[in-house]
Write a structure and sequence with these properties.
Elements (H helix, E strand, L loop, with lengths): L1 H11 L1 H22 L12 E7 L6 E9 H8 L11 H5 L2 H9 L2 E5 L2 E2 L1 E13 L2 E11 L8 E5 L10 E7 L10 E5 L5 E4 L6 H18 L1 H11 L4 E5 L4 H6 L2 E5 L3 H27 L7 H21 L6 H23 L6 H30 L3 H27 L3
Parallel strand pairs: 1-8
Antiparallel strand pairs: 1-2, 2-6, 3-4, 3-7, 5-6, 7-10, 8-9, 11-12
Helix pairs in contact: 2-12, 2-13, 6-12, 7-10, 9-11, 9-12, 10-11, 10-13
């Protein structure tokens, strides 16, 4: 009886409850985060539409090309009439007027406090992007007077169903002679109304913008996060092999012990993050500058495979002490994945290097934020069976399964 009362009192003590609460939070973040993460073929590719706006010198009309993903339009307009999971040109074409109406009611251009009238300039077409097929709308915005000051744009497409959606604008102001003079503007829920400037932003403004974009893309890049997480999970553990049997070597048989100190765990984490950062910065820069290019489908498939390799090592319990080597090797491929995102955003020609550095800095800040949340919590729980078996082993199983799903999608272009 006394033992039961003692255990009941102990269970209510903060020192006992806190680890349990942290265990629950870790469980929720790893298991449910992996389980319910978006499963699109390009896991780090957000929902974006692409607008190219140009104005001839001294003109009052704006030519607008607007690419909107069919998967997004199908979600809000139910374009797939026979519900077979595949959109045909006939299904899209018959809803052309509805698509145009839906789009134009969510875009407003204003010149000198007067709204520009949006009309259709050419029939709707389709175009392929790296993440699927897009409807292409050709529009004209009649603004009534020559555009001699910054236009105001207001954007709200899909915000009611997907707050992370954004409109990526390439703006060619009056007098521009080509795409190299285009200015990039990003329209999101927090920046739905903006000015389209007649002059390019300063170097500092470009740097700030791309820092934010870099951090945003690492946080929504679920495949990059899962690869990094697979390499970080063992950082708070020590693995000692206790059997030399060949079969057990193959399938893994090691004693799992908690790391002796926080600093030793931090040292391992810094090795992994630094190697990953250095590697993807190299290929991101080379690809963004057009020096090296790889097929998108190959890059995305190898990224998924890299997650599987890292997760399987955890499952087998044969974690290599030189995980930073794997982080560097696969980080080179992940850099090409980041480059595809940067290509969608566009690099300002007047601040090419500044924007590239800013995007890299943003990615690193995003990674450090993840580490800052993960490492203290993992270190706190490192000695528990919950972490060693539940999070480390079974979390790695879930990560591997998710990555296998992505690999099949990407490799076979499903």
């Amino acid at each position: 009886m006394m033992t039961s009362l003692f255990m009941a009192k102990k269970a209510l003590q903060p020192a006992y409850l806190l680890p349990k609460l942290l265990s629950f939070l870790m469980s929720f973040s790893v298991f449910f985060g992996v389980l319910f993460a978006p499963t699109s073929a390009l896991a780090h590719k957000p929902s974006d539409s692409y607008l190219t706006m140009s104005v001839p010198k001294d003109a009052s009309d704006v030519a607008v090309r607007w690419d909107i993903a069919l998967r997004d339009l199908d979600y809000v307009l139910q374009l797939d009439r026979d519900n077979d999971g595949a959109l045909t040109w006939g299904e899209v074409r018959t809803r052309g007027d509805d698509i145009t109406k839906y789009a134009t009611t969510n875009l407003t251009l204003t010149n000198k406090d007067k709204p520009c009238a949006l009309t259709t300039a050419a029939p709707m077409q389709l175009d392929k992007h790296s993440d699927g097929t897009y409807a292409v709308l050709s529009l004209t915005a009649a603004c009534g007077a020559a555009i001699t000051e910054a236009l105001q744009v207001k954007y709200s497409l899909l915000f009611d169903v997907d707050p992370s959606h954004r409109g990526l604008v390439q703006w060619l102001p009056p007098g521009s002679t080509g795409e190299k003079e285009a200015l990039s503007v990003i329209l999101g829920t927090e920046s739905a109304t903006q000015k389209l400037p007649l002059q390019p932003p300063s170097q500092w403004e470009s740097f700030q913008q791309y820092v934010v974009e870099g951090a945003f893309h690492i946080w929504i890049g679920y495949d990059h996060i899962l690869f990094l997480l697979s390499l970080l999970l063992p950082a708070v553990l020590i693995f000692r092999r206790n059997d030399t049997n060949i079969a057990k070597k193959l399938f893994g048989n090691s004693q799992t012990l908690p790391a002796e100190s926080f600093w030793s765990a931090l040292k391992e984490v810094l090795k992994v993050v630094t190697a990953f950062t250095f590697a993807h910065s190299i290929t991101l820069s080379l690809a963004a500058l057009g020096i090296v290019s790889l097929p998108s489908r190959l890059v995305e498939s190898v990224i998924a495979a890299s997650i599987i390799v890292a997760a399987i090592q955890n499952i087998r319990g044969v974690v290599d002490s030189k995980r930073w080597v794997m982080a560097f090797g696969f980080g080179l491929i992940h850099g090409f994945g980041f480059a595809s995102v940067l290509a969608d955003l566009g690099l300002p020609q007047n601040a090419l290097v500044t924007a590239l550095i800013g995007f890299n800095v943003g990615v690193e800040l995003g990674q450090l934020a993840i580490v800052a949340v993960f490492l203290p919590l993992a270190f706190w729980l490192r000695a528990t069976k919950f972490y060693q078996v539940g999070v480390f082993k079974w979390g790695s199983v879930l990560i591997a399964l998710m990555a296998l799903y992505w690999l099949v999608q990407r490799a076979f272009d499903l």
